[in-house]
Amino acid sequence: MQQENLKPKLLDQMRMVMRLNHMSLATEKAYINWAKRFILFHRKQHPKNLGTNAIVQFLSYLAVNKHVAAATQNQALNSLVFLYREVLKLEIGNFTGIYWAKQQKHIPVVLSKREVKLILEQLHGVHYLIACLLYGTGMRLTEALKLRVKDLDFERNMILVRDAKGNKDRVVPFPLFLKMPLEKQLEKSKAIHDHDISQGFGKTILPYALSKKYPSACSEWKWQFVFPSSKRSIDPRSKQESRWHIYPSIMQNSLAKAIKTIGLNKKVGCHTFRHSFATHLLESGTDIRTLQVLLGHNDLKTTMIYTHVTLEKGIGTKSPLDSISLMHKVV
């Protein structure tokens, strides 16, 4: 069998194993891409004929020649470890001699409450609603976009975040300010769903194997996305035409325009609302353990980064310059 024929079969097998492990589509695409690059780097040799040294060479090449970030290099390593251990069922040795990209520790960018207000005032419609949700709950953008109707509990004032990072579920508080806007959003979403049903569509993508276990669930209203896309599309896995949620890039572009309009000189993205949510809660006296649960962090050390943010801002600390009387001089 020619090597060219081995490559697609191997990648198909890798894709199947990832789906059996319920890995996200984004992770699937990233891992497949790294496997392809690894194979091409070694001139289309089959990975089973390559060892640990080949992986070391590839990872060092990424750091030295391609100048990738440490997180990117780690993602490449994770994909290759998955390929060898889960797909090829081969144990790989210790990685020695790798040139690691330097991991830089960054204090997350945090907005003041005034800056949050200025940004939100520049957003409109569903983009405004999503941004409020991100700041009001601390959700990641993908978590907010993947919300389904049944995840909004208006009676118990909570929102269920399902299959979040690390395949974990968690509960976040339901901002009372968003109750009425979200009710109106559900009315719009219901009208779209009813229209799709009338045209013979209306089936959404269900997580994992639920579509086989509950065949009719994909058409039920409770399983539809809270923020449906304006157009139907073909699902890359099931190949069926359905209506997915709003694409992340649409929200990201809308936010970028808002930042440009107000002339804010900070590197702000949708994730900045999550950082701001955590920092503002911490500043208001929220316990660090409670914050860890709300953010869905496994390790408290991850949550502790926000204590560094408050220290950077000098919360509760008065500058000695402010304790002496000086006259302002024009510089």
Please explain how this structure is put together.
The protein is mostly helical and 331 residues long. Helix content is 50%, strand content 4%. The chain is built from 14 helices and five strands. The chain has helices at residues 3-20, 25-41, 52-64, 70-87, 113-122, 125-137, 141-145, 179-198, 210-213, 248-262, 270-283, 288-295, 300-303, 305-312, and strands at 152-153, 158-161, 170-173, 233-234, 241-242. A three-stranded antiparallel sheet has the order 1-2-3. Strands 4-5 form a two-stranded antiparallel ribbon. Helix 11 (270-283) packs across helix 14.
Short description:
The chain has 331 residues and is mainly α.
Observed structural traits:
mainly alpha, 331 residues, 4% strand, 3-stranded antiparallel β-sheet, two-stranded antiparallel ribbon, 5 strands
